[in-house]
Predict the 3D structure of the following.
Amino acid sequence: MSHSKDSTSKLRSQAWFGGVNRDAFIHRSWVKNMGLPDDAFDGRPIIGICNTFSELTPCNAHFRGLVEHIKRGVLDAGGTPLEFPVFSCGETLLRPSAMLFRNLAAMDTEEAIRGNPIDGVVLMCGCDKTTPSLLMGAASCDLPTIVVSGGPMLNGRFQGHALGSGTDVWRFSEDVRAGKMDVDEFLAAEAGMSRSAGHCNTMGTASTMASMVESLGIALPGNAAYPAVDANRNRLGRFSGRRIVDLVYEQVPVSKLLTRQAFENAIRVNGAIGGSTNAVIHLLAIAGRVGIEVSLDDWDTLGHDVPCLVDLMPSGRYLMEEFCYAGGLPAVMKQVEDLLHTDALTVNGETVGANLAGVESFDTDVIRTRDNPLSQTGGVAVLRGNLAPDGAVIKPSAASPELMQHRGRAVVFEHIEDFKRRVDDPDLDIYADDIMVLKGAGPKGYPGMAEVGNLPLPAKILEQGVRDMVRISDARMSGTAYGTVVLHVSPESTAGGPLALVKTGDIINVDTAGRGLTLEVDDTELARRRERLEISEPPMTGGYQKLYFDHVEQADRGADLDFLRGCRGAAVPRENH
Ligand code: FES
């Protein structure tokens, strides 16, 4: 059965709004209190607009304005827009970690879509977790879906220099601790860093995920780059509003776009943009919702050798504003077109190849050409060994080349509070060529796999002028961060992974070229330690955290809740009256 603008066939929403009976009266009458005319329910698509506006998510705080443009687009195309909120996971304020709540927000999104009279949905995403959470939830429903990202902030400016969200916080705070920057200057940089509405202006996780949805073909071309305050962002919202109505008429469910080919394209594009390591976990989780087999190893085999072409912080120099002016993501995709599945369908009804026809790059400093990459390896390398049987990741473009192959003595911190207590102790027994190891920061351990993997260096090391050391943990790190940081060690220490067995003084070998991560302790000794191992669980009083702890999967599977994997469709639930 095909819907068309002339068709009398029923849309999903007609199960609520169609007919002449008591229930339809209830459904129509109550929404008419918003001033909707009778023809809003005459069989035209009802478009749910899932809005993650929240003043507790500053990156999405401009969504009240953006949503009006999306609604106008829906109305332009003959649909009826109905906006609804879901839990908004803001990265900067939410404790103990926004990641803990990604799956909760995904569950919220899924149930809100399925339980309501919605024929198609627009997902308003911005701050890091709001993109994967909404797309995971929508993917489990499989209605026509389009993503509209909120767009990055304008460039930060301070004392005549550009400031990058996050990246310069890490740099400044280390300068303060090393005595190279005074605290008043540090504080003065705050307002300069965040100068407009929008999400982080670096190629951090938010910009990476906005690029991922564009490269997956689930957002319109241009989605990743337009600044939040650029009129083109509002125009993109309007076009998306129009397009979702057509997607309903054309009956294009999200699973028609989120194919294996689309995920392969996204993994390759992540390499070309030098994207965040968080994209690994989020795309694994999204793929799990549509039943597409994507493994951690796919990230290495498909993405690792893609050259990083985008000279943006944290891997490079520029920010998202320059990225936009240079042509944005289409200009990057054009450079790696030969590596992409150009016949993959995208949300505007065209293939990737058709969308890239005629695309140009306008600044080859910012978006490099293939013969002049920022680095030869833009993606992530997946390391395995007796320290990470199920894998760990490292981002070579953000690491120090001389530390990629490194054998050193472990200095172990049992949890983040242990680290914070001892890191600046002048008596801490640590040297620049040691390896800092953090436990208890994985999905279960934190809980919620916090972004603490880029451990600040000890003050005594910073004072020596050293700015990077090898760090290993079961944590994540911010997409704005940098350093030789081995992340997502699986299984995590709290799940009994070998990371739990590491002791200060052990030798660890990081062999990025050989993809190895080895704890050089013999098996007999490790077995002995395991017998005595006592794993401490994070303090929990029940509620969602307990549900999460009991059901969260490990990072190599996307850290979704085990019972949320897969697509449950959007069959109309039974009547409630
Ligand atoms: Fe929201 Fe970076 S903190 S995007």
Residues 381-536 form a domain with the Glucose Oxidase; domain 1 fold (CATH 3.50.30.80). DSSP finds 20 helices and 14 strands in the chain. The radius of gyration is 24 Å.
